[in-house]
């Protein structure tokens, strides 16, 4: 019996170590990505906005590692520069949505009643409609620009976090320690911030991390449709939209930003998965 | 049962009223209207008088609430108005775009089911084996690929280089639907394979499975007779939600492939501020929303008779 117990404990420990190792690796990779984005303007080999029509649409070579676009702009520089606008706007979007959604959800879950059921009904409708068309409508109304795209996607994405926060609050609200806090005369604000929020932050953080990738794809999608970042701004979605017409002759123009999106989305998804494993060891992935 | 369905369908009325009012208000707050969009696209240089005249003709000079009630009155009598842009009746235009979207929805859902259910089962049964690993990596990658990138890659490989399928449009029969279907199915299958795998694993860990194994029931019959059946509930819900959002048209995929469905119609209508057309789309979405929820609840009831319908209504 003792040996079996020892073995299980040991294998659990190995599993935890493994998860932590994965967590460190992906955190470092994401950190590198963020550093690239932050210091993009120092890392670019060429000016990403400098046109050079003589060298337009050159295939990847030793001088231009990823080739050039139709204005002769160096694609590697544009992809690096695009990391800044694409990644930071996605992070901003996730921050807005998760904070806003959580505030709404906590409020609804804690107070309950009519307002709660109305807000939840509204969020149902938001969740049911195809998000992209909704976002296109809002972005179309606001006009182009990456900040407007962020606002448009924020409008459609908050319900997910509101629902999550609300359900968490509902399950915590009935706990004895909350009743104890209420009975001892704590103000609702204090209960929400001191006793409820710390206990629901885990799942929200996991969902937020897992959402970065999706948000990045959706933002790039809006830019691709011409409703996000406006040319000449280097942004991965609009760069791909720009290269669409030259797909046959110059596939590298869409491949470079496309792969950049793919790799960064994957990194954020991997990090999200490991964050979930670290924060919530109960729901084993396997 | 009939009473229950009737009650649920009655919910449509407040939903349609609310959502159309909301979208009307939203579009009113937009910069520029259909007249601007119409003339600016035609090259500009049109005087304000001409625009004002056109606005009066379309009723756009009226206050917001008058416009809305006029439109609502029309809908109540079965007239959804005419498009501000093309001048054609909205209802007919909308209906003519539906088959393309429905067709694409069906093919991509079918392909998704054909990929994700067998692979999800395989991954769950051979948990932590090589197949499980490959399937998980593939679905992870599929989850990280934006649809527009997938569609451009598919166009590059299969349409431009191999010339197997047309680049865009829906004129070449079954061939033209292959690439849009693949684009949609890759993203959905990546998501559902994970879901199917997780659902089945959860079922496999339940006590009744162990009980059946202990009694010597064959593994395959446990899987097919019990596990799959009870896993279906979760999968059906997800599929229903996907069908709902696909029927709303997939804005990006439809516009990349110039697939003439309602998603593209909606995007065009939004860009051109074609209010009556947007309203038609919004009503369609409300219909889908209510129907999908209703059908899921009824399916629930059949798959798991313990779930009672009346409570939901």
From TrEMBL, chain A:
Q: How does it sit in the membrane?
A: Multi-pass membrane protein
Q: Name one GO biological process term.
A: transmembrane transport
Hydrolase recorded as keyword: no
Domain named ABC transmembrane type-1: residues: 87-272
SUPFAM superfamilies according to UniProt:
MetI-like (SSF161098)
Q: Does the keyword Ribosomal protein apply?
A: no
Bilayer-spanning residue ranges: 23-44, 87-112, 132-156, 250-272
Keyword terms, alphabetized = Cell membrane, Membrane, Transmembrane, Transmembrane helix, Transport
Which GO cellular component term is one of those annotated?
Answer: plasma membrane
Subcellular location as annotated: Cell membrane
Q: Give the family, as the similarity comment puts it.
A: Belongs to the binding-protein-dependent transport system permease family. OppBC subfamily.
The molecule here is called Nickel transporter permease NikC
Q: Which organism is it from?
A: Acetobacterium bakii
From TrEMBL, chain B:
The protein's GO terms of the molecular function aspect are: nickel cation transmembrane transporter activity
Topology versus the membrane, per the UniProt entry?
Answer: Multi-pass membrane protein
| SUPFAM superfamilies to which the protein is assigned, alphabetical | MetI-like
Report the transmembrane regions from the record.
12-31, 102-125, 137-161, 173-190, 233-258, 278-300
Q: Which UniProt keywords apply?
A: Cell membrane, Ion transport, Membrane, Nickel, Nickel transport, Transmembrane, Transmembrane helix, Transport
Q: In terms of domain of life, where is this protein from?
A: Bacteria
ABC transmembrane type-1 domain: from which residue to which, for each copy? 98-300
InterPro entries the UniProt entry points to: BPD_transp_1_N, MetI-like, MetI-like_sf, Opp2B
Gene Ontology CC = plasma membrane
Q: Where in the cell is it found?
A: Cell membrane
Assembly information from the UniProt record: The complex is composed of two ATP-binding proteins (NikD and NikE), two transmembrane proteins (NikB and NikC) and a solute-binding protein (NikA).
Entry similarity comment: Belongs to the binding-protein-dependent transport system permease family. OppBC subfamily.
Q: Which protein, by its recorded name, is this? A: Nickel import system permease protein NikB
Give the species this sequence originates from: Acetobacterium bakii
Query: Source taxonomy lineage?
Result: Bacteria, Bacillati, Bacillota, Clostridia, Eubacteriales
């Amino acid at each position: 019996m003792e040996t079996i117990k020892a073995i299980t404990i040991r294998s659990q420990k190995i599993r935890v170590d493994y998860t932590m190792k994965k967590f460190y690796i992906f955190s470092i990779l994401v950190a590198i990505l963020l550093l690239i984005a932050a210091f993009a303007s120092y890392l670019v080999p060429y000016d990403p906005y400098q046109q050079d029509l003589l060298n337009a649409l050159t295939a990847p070579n030793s001088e231009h590692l990823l080739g050039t676009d139709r204005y002769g702009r160096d694609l590697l520089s544009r992809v690096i520069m695009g990391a800044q606008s694409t990644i930071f706007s996605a992070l901003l979007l996730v921050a807005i949505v998760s904070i806003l959604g959580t505030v709404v959800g906590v409020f609804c879950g804690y107070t309950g009643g009519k307002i709660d059921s109305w807000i939840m009904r509204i969020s149902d409708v938001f969740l049911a409609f195809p998000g992209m068309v909704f976002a296109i409508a809002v972005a179309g109304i606001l006009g182009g620009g990456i900040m407007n795209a962020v606002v448009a996607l924020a409008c459609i994405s908050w319900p997910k976090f509101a629902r999550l926060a609300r359900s968490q609050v509902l399950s915590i609200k009935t706990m004895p320690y909350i009743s104890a806090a209420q009975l001892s005369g704590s103000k609702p604000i204090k209960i929400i911030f001191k006793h409820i929020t710390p206990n629901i932050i885990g799942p929200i953080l996991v969902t937020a991390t897992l959402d970065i990738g999706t948000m990045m794809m959706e933002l790039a999608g809006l830019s691709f449709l011409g409703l996000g970042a406006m040319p000449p701004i280097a942004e991965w979605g609009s760069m791909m939209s720009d290269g669409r017409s030259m797909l046959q002759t110059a596939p590298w123009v869409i491949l470079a930003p496309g792969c950049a999106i793919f790799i960064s989305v994957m990194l954020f998804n991997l990090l999200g998965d490991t964050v979930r494993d670290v924060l919530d060891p109960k729901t084993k992935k396997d | 049962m009939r009473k229950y369905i009737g009650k649920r369908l009655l919910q449509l009325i407040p939903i349609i009223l609310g959502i159309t009012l909301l979208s009307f208000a939203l579009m009113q707050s937009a910069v520029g209207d259909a007249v601007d969009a119409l003339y600016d696209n035609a090259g500009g240089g049109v005087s304000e008088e001409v625009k004002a005249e056109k606005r009066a003709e379309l009723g756009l000079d009226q206050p917001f609430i008058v416009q809305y009630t006029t439109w609502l009155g029309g809908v109540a009598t079965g007239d959804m108005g005419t498009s501000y842009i093309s001048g054609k009746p909205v209802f007919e235009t909308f209906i003519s775009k539906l088959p393309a979207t429905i067709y694409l929805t069906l093919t991509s859902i079918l392909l998704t089911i054909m990929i994700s259910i067998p692979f999800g089962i395989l991954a769950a049964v051979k948990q932590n084996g090589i197949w499980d690993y490959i399937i998980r990596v593939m679905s992870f990658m599929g989850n990280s690929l934006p649809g527009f990138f997938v569609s451009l890659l598919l166009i590059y490989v299969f349409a431009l280089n191999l010339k197997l399928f047309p680049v865009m449009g829906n004129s070449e029969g079954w061939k033209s639907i292959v690439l849009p279907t693949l684009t949609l199915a890759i993203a959905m299958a990546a998501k559902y394979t994970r879901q199917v795998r997780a659902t089945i694993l959860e079922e496999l860990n339940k006590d009744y499975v162990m009980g059946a194994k202990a009694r010597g029931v064959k593994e395959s019959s446990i899987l097919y007779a019990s596990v799959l059946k009870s896993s279906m509930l979760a999968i059906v819900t997800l599929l229903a939600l996907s069908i709902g959002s696909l029927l709303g048209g997939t804005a990006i995929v439809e516009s990349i492939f110039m697939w003439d469905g309602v998603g593209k119609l909606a995007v065009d209508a939004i860009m051109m501020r074609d209010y009556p057309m947007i309203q038609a789309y919004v009503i369609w979405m409300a219909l889908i929303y209510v129907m999908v929820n209703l059908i899921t609840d009824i399916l629930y009831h059949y798959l798991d008779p313990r779930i009672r319908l009346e409570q939901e209504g």
